[in-house]
Design a protein that fits this description.
Length: 510
């Protein structure tokens, strides 16, 4: 995977340099994050990184600005020229106290109204086990006018789902505006991992999201392996890529059962749920648990997939393929279902590009953005598969895209299983290489394509210990698009639109 080019500029030049790297929005903003470097004698201040994907050249380009000790912690906001920066800048302000001047929405994002003003948890002088209580103002954004009323939903919901508060502004049945307040269960994972070795941090990384264990672990391992200068064994790369595609299939199949739940389409719900259970049991056979944890480690993988298990994977995939085909027919044949999903929850391509959306949310709107194609990692450069897109950007497009991507993933699993069978280097010593972290220092990034889109991680090591880790899940850049997608639709369609994105709450509450 390509390294990145990093420019370091003064705060007054940060916005202009970022705008140049953005290239008029053609290079998506992959991530933006802060870092406390007050203990670094060469810096003695706070830093902000903005990372862009140069899709035409298949490389990452980044700009960093440093606020030296005693300097004002302010800079000109990027959001007006790079809309995708909107959440990142609010989070950096919450976590580090670095203020984006002229930001269009300077409200707190992550730290809710029970946190005190002036508390910045990712600064080094804040202890990991600190307990704080306080208050700060957190207003919801609502539309005003005659005949406009508010409908609050959550944060506690009727189903067993994670907490999120949604405030709808309505005129009649139409949703004029939606404001979402998330981050109710912020876990402080990035803070917890400070001072740990990559091996010690790995169990935490695996648990950032229950549905994306492989994607998060692979991104993390890419970053620390590049810092350590390690190239993992080929068989480990095959296994990592295979597990990634199995995780993608499991999540996409689960989504095929969850999306029709938004309209009570029970036969599809049942078939989707039953099929996902087959895949979860397969994952348990592969890894010893239902979430594929404990297989990928820094330096490779810690267990093999033998020929008997390869045959079992092929058998399960044949059954899953048949069920996905049945689901596809069920969706196509139900006129009432098609009426609900077509032209509902539209995200236009220019919106997807402006917000630097990823995964299904981006590709369903015609934004051909997939890290498996954009960056060479794992075995993907050797494999035959197509990048699938849709154009209409509605619920129907997001559903159709998942079905089409499943076909590609079934083909990838077959290719990878054949590669494993053909590979004779299945000695345990050919699965991983040991890394001595004691003198390893540096910073780098990792990226992998989860079912929801690309997962990005930045890791900085100092003498083998994590000085800073930043995790940007695929859900993070897609959540702001939900508030746009609902505009003009009726409120009973919100569950359907929400499920069609299948965004995660926990993985942004890191």
């Amino acid at each position: 995977m390509a390294d990145w080019s990093l420019k370091v500029v003064k705060p007054e030049n940060f916005r202009g340099t970022a705008n140049i790297l953005s290239n008029g929005g053609n290079n998506p903003l992959t991530a933006m994050f802060g870092r406390d470097e007050t203990e670094n004698p060469e810096v003695k201040g706070y830093a902000i990184y903005a990372v862009f994907e140069n899709l035409s050249e298949h490389k990452m380009e980044a700009v960093k600005t440093v606020f030296s000790e005693g300097e004002s912690l302010c800079y000109e906001s990027l959001t007006s020229v790079i809309p995708a920066a909107v959440w990142y800048e609010r989070e950096i302000q919450d976590m580090f106290g670095i203020v984006p001047k002229n930001h269009p929405d300077p409200r707190p994002l992550v730290l809710h109204d029970t946190f005190p003003e002036g508390f910045y948890p990712l600064r080094k002088n804040v202890a990991k086990d600190v307990e704080v209580r306080g208050s700060r103002r957190m207003d919801m954004s609502v539309a005003k006018g005659e005949g406009v009323y508010e409908v609050p939903v959550g944060p506690i919901h009727a189903g067993i789902i994670e907490p999120g508060h949604f405030r709808f502004s309505q005129a009649g049945e139409s949703m004029l505006q939606l404001d979402a307040r998330l981050f109710y269960t912020h876990r402080g994972l990035e803070k917890i991992m400070e001072g740990k070795t990559p091996d010690e941090a790995l169990p935490i990384v695996e648990r950032i999201c229950g549905a994306c264990s492989i994607a998060n672990t692979w991104s993390f391992c890419q970053a620390v392996e590049k810092i350590a200068g390690v190239k993992i064994p080929r068989r480990a790369e095959i296994i990592r890529t295979l597990l990634m595609e199995i995780e993608r299939i499991t999540n996409h199949v689960g989504d095929l059962g969850n999306i029709p739940a938004g309209v009570g389409f029970n036969p599809a719900i049942s078939l989707g749920g039953r099929t996902k259970e087959m895949l979860m049991r397969l994952q348990e056979r592969i890894a010893g648990n239902r979430f594929l944890r404990g297989v990928i480690v820094p330096g490779g993988v810690c267990q093999d997939i033998d020929s008997a298990l390869i045959n079992d994977i092929a058998d399960i995939m044949d059954k899953v393929k048949a069920n996905v085909s049945d689901l596809s027919e069920m969706f196509a044949q139900q006129a009432n279902f098609q009426n609900r999903v077509r032209t509902t929850g539209i995200v236009r391509k220019n919106t997807a590009v402006d917000l630097a959306m990823v995964g299904v949310g981006a590709r369903a709107s015609g934004f051909a953005h997939d890290s498996r194609k954009d960056f060479a990692y794992g075995l993907y450069p050797e494999l035959d598969f197509q990048l699938v897109t849709e154009k209409t950007g509605d619920v129907a497009a997001r559903l159709a895209l998942r079905i089409a991507e499943l076909t590609e993933s079934f083909g990838l699993v077959e290719q990878l299983c054949n590669l494993l069978k053909a590979d004779k280097s299945n000695d345990p010593s050919n699965l991983t290489c040991q890394i001595d972290w004691s003198n390893v220092s540096g910073e780098d990034w990792g990226l992998s394509e989860s079912a929801r889109g690309s997962n990005f991680q930045f890791v900085a090591l100092q003498d083998g210990k994590i000085d800073r880790i930043f995790v940007r899940s695929a859900s993070y850049p897609n959540w702001p698009a939900l508030t746009i997608a609902v505009q003009g639709d009726i409120i009973p369609d919100f569950p359907l639109i929400n499920k069609s994105f299948e965004l995660c709450y926990a993985c942004i509450d890191r």
